[in-house]
Amino acid sequence: MSLVKPRSLLKSLAAASAVAAALGAAPASAANTFRFAFQGDLKSLDPYTLKETFTIAAHGAVYESLVTRDKDLKLAPGLAESWETPEPTRYRFHLRKNVTFHDGTPFTADDVIFSAERVRAPGSNFQTNVPADATFVKVDANTVDMVLKNPNPIALYQFGGWYIMSKAWAEKNDATKPTPVSASTPSYAALHENGTGPFVITEHQPGVRTVFRKFPGYWGKVESNIDEAIFTTIQNDATRVAALLSGEVDWVDPVPLQDQSRVSGSPNAVVVNAPELRTIYLGMDQASAELKGSNVKGKNPFKDVRVREAFYRAIDEDAIVKRVMRGQAAAASLLIAPPLFPLAGEFKRPAYDPNRAKALLAEAGYPNGFEVPLDCPNDRYVNDEAICQAITSMLARAGIKVSLLAQPKAKYFAKILKPAYDTAFYLLGWTPSSMDSHNILYEITGCRNDLASPRGTTNLGNYCNPKVDALADRIERETDQEARNLMIKQAYDVVQADWGYIPLHQQALAWGVSKKVKLVPRADNQMMLFWVSKEP
Amino acid sequence: MLAFILRRVLQSVGVLLAVGLIAFAMFRFAGDPVNQLVAPDTPYAERLQIRQSLGLDDPVLVQFARYAGNALRGRFGNSYQFRQPVSTLLAERMPATLELALCATVFALVVGILMGVYSALHRDGALAKLLQAVSLVGVSLPTFLIGILLIFLFSVTLGWLPSYGRGDTVRLGWWTTGFLTASGLRALVLPSITLGLFQMTLIMRLVRAEMLEVLRTDYIRFARARGLTTRSIHFGHALKNTLVPVITVAGLQLGSIIAFSIITETVFQWPGMGLLFVQAVQNVDVPIMAAYLLLVALIFVSINLVVDLLYTVVDPRLRLSVRRAA
Fold this sequence. Notes:
The complex is a heterodimer. By secondary structure, chain A is an alpha+beta fold. In chain A, about 30% of the residues lie in helices and about 20% in strands. Chain A is built from 15 helices and 19 strands. Chain A has helices at about 5-30, 55-60, 110-120, 165-170, 190, 235-245, 260-265, 305-315, 315-325, 355-365, 385-395, 410-415, 435-445, 465-475, 480-495, and strands at about 35-40, 65-70, 75, 80-85, 90-95, 135-140, 145, 200-205, 210-215, 230-235, 250-255, 270-285, 330, 370-375, 400-405, 425-430, 500-515, 515-520, 535. In chain A, the strands form five sheets. In chain A, strands 1, 8, 9, 10, 11, 12, 13, 16 and 17 form a nine-stranded mixed beta sheet that branches. In chain A, strand 4 and strand 5 form a beta hairpin. In chain A, helix 8 (about 305-315) runs antiparallel to helix 10 and helix 14 (about 465-475) packs antiparallel against helix 15 (about 480-495). By secondary structure, chain B is mostly helical. Chain B has helices at about 1-25, 35, 45-55, 60-70, 85-120, 125-140, 145-155, 180-215, 220-225, 230-260, 260-265, 275-280, 285-315, 315-325, and strands spanning about 170, 175. Chain B has a two-stranded antiparallel sheet. In chain B, a hairpin with a 2-residue loop joins strand 1 (about 170) and strand 2. In chain B, helix 10 runs antiparallel to helix 13 (about 285-315). Chain B is globular, with a radius of gyration of 24 Å. Classes of the chains: A alpha+beta, B mainly alpha. At the A-B interface, helix 1, helix 6 and helix 12 of A face helix 2, helix 3, helix 5, helix 7 and helix 12 of B. Chain A: It is found in: Periplasm. Chain A: Belongs to the bacterial solute-binding protein 5 family. Chain A: Keywords: Signal, Transport. Chain A: Pfam families: SBP_bac_5. Chain A: This is Periplasmic dipeptide transport protein.
């Protein structure tokens, strides 16, 4: 005998499905829902846990920063209505009034001071977004001063990623410290949000789906006309494109290069391409006495500037853009993307010249070339492995025998980054998180001779010219923008004359967007929900 | 008998420990988790601090002992990427995987048996030959390709079924089910077929072969002589006798359906344990990888244990030999 009569079981099933149908139908009929899918996850809701483009953009729908970036990446007022610099080391922020957090508590100067502490606490991945030497002082409930030890022309450049959290809320929920990786218990802030932004998160299942709803108490006017946004991870390229083509999602990132023409040819969707800020480049080991994995023994050919120029000249970047990237990239002459440096237009990429490359190699004493291993990721950048393969064959024509080692990023980064620095020749991509050249001149072209100093941490091949370091130090302090830009140009000129790096290109962002949707493709690849509108 | 069970349980524990140790040794080759956890421009000092706090600098054996000790007390640690307990994440994902596995198995059994019976009864018919050919395709095409083909046909071209995800789910206690909503049921169709296709063709071929065998036996001939209806001969007598091996195979395959739903879940973005595992591998999320591998080992070990015990129940000769050995 079964305990449940079949008929009553059926009844309860019917009731349950009726409830479910009602639950499912209610929001769908009223709301204008925007569905978006990315290849990766939205891991933690704690805005200080992971500095990653998509995560920052998603948090940007619910959290806001003091100073933000507009559609052209220019600084714009956020929670700070305005700011001034009464003296070079003091910034005064006038906070917006009548702003409330999602839980109803008003936004005040205390929240700014609390957030400034929290973002620089151990476990935060955004420590460098706020200058380490800055102290925050409350002037009154709606005014905050940031006091610096030294003048800093780019002090506000990274404020866009520094979201303001509520002090009272964090204290109530035991979330005053950023959620560190090794936390033994999950932090409340990792699973819940309480920002001031135009959207609230009503459901968050990490790695599965996250639901955003409009925040009725938002202080400003919102451009977007969507009531609800549902985020899903779709990892598989083919499935992601299929979901877009069948109309199940309205936005996907990225669309693989080989699928772009198919998406553009479909009735439902288009591909939105815009240049991105990340520069893909090649680096050469100029530090080791002997080149690792090479057949040249007892010396390092990359120490010879002629060899570096030969490598630069032997690579046909136009062909890479045209064939490997199918036109979806812009050849680069600098390590920084042109939108981030006003004088970028004055630089020209040295021409591809295979004959000159051969001559230079012969002059340097390698008429028959030499062997060198190339480290390359195969799941990090657009077509990364294919780029490396193309470079391998281009260099082969100049007599350089490249043995390519392409691996997944988890293995690749462990091999090449500090402390291993185990590479002779590598491909890497870099976006300056400050959106300023100083980051590049310090991190990538700065000498890495002093191991204790963070200068040159990502200068894997240790390209080193003291002139660049001296300029970088002046650039860090110079507040006159025009003079500063000229110094930056000077520094890039030195790097170019040394043939220190081989910039390749900026890849293009490739969003698949439903034809019903209008949005803003910002060059930092951040898709902001509050600029999205959709025909219902 | 008790000694036999005890011995098998002890062996199972040994297997689990071995799986854990091998898995841990292999994680060293999966790469460095820290790079997946922080931004590329994270200062080196911060990276070092994270490495230390995760205990990544300790020798593998120390890490393993610490992990095994915690696991015995039911603690599987926190996921590096989600910063949530692994046990919570797995429990959240388990219903999705189990429901998918169940549907795939039911699909494989029902369709497989029907097709098998049909092709045994009409072994020279055109349809039977076609089914044989189709089953060959099912066995030889890789799962991800089948999944993508189905998506392109039924989601993109025809627009009948969703291409990804689980649809709307209903929460019943800690279990979330897709069986109670229309979109949940629709979402189940394509992944179930993809996951169950291989098993279906396997069962179909098995039923067909067994059925042909049984149809040649004396008691079928006698049943015919007695004038029983064809229907009762085929389904009442012949099919029943072919089912014993089918049930054994289907039971064993259930374990592999659960364990190897990884590919199907990746193609359909099915929010189950397999997908969680794939994401964990890409991000070197060691706690999730370790817990998942242990769970799969546990499923296989339990199924094998049950099968071993069932054999001794079914076959008296085995029971005798067990007793003698003990």
